[in-house]
Write a structure and sequence with these properties.
The chain has 5 helices and 5 strands, in the order H-E-H-E-E-E-E-H-H-H. It has 152 residues and is α+β, with helices and mostly antiparallel strands. Strand 3 and strand 4 form a beta hairpin.
């Protein structure tokens, strides 16, 4: 079976930066495990990118001008919670979430807070990542938005 690779590119506004750089999701996490894939990416970014302030999550068919995104982010404090993107309304749950297709930004603080919720004992039921329906597992943005809404 051919290994599926998903790259994530990160950017910096400073010259001489080591970015962009790809992050590959291991083949052991299948394409249908959306929540697990997102968890892997967020944890990896937090563990390896110590100077990162924000992360932009987007589908691979969307184009972004990194300089414009970085310029827009300069007005925000990475020490504060930030979950910014194109909001959509999900009819099944009646909740708002940011579209992964158009992309959304999480601050480092927000990513750390959501990881803390995933790892909490007992797990916050609004941040549950196991035992999800196939539909929810394929829509990790909904699971993330629910956790952020209830936990932060």
């Amino acid at each position: 079976m051919e290994e599926f690779k998903q790259s994530i590119r990160t950017y910096s506004v400073s010259k001489g930066s080591p970015y962009p750089k790809p992050l590959v999701v291991p083949a052991s996490i299948s394409e249908t495990e959306g929540v697990k894939r997102l968890q892997h990416v967020i944890r990896n970014v937090l563990d390896t990118e110590q100077f990162m302030e924000f992360a932009f999550f987007v589908n691979d068919h969307t184009y972004v001008i990194p300089e414009n995104l970085c310029s827009w982010l300069m007005r925000y404090d990475p020490a504060m919670n930030l979950y910014a993107g194109h909001a959509l309304y999900e009819k099944r749950s009646g909740k708002m979430f940011n579209s992964g297709a158009s992309g959304y930004v999480l601050s480092k603080t927000t990513m750390q807070n959501i990881v803390n919720e995933w790892d909490a004992e007992p797990t916050n039921p609004n941040c549950q990542t196991s035992g999800l329906s196939k539909w929810l597992d394929n829509n990790p943005g909904l699971v993330t938005a629910k956790c952020l809404f209830h936990a932060l």
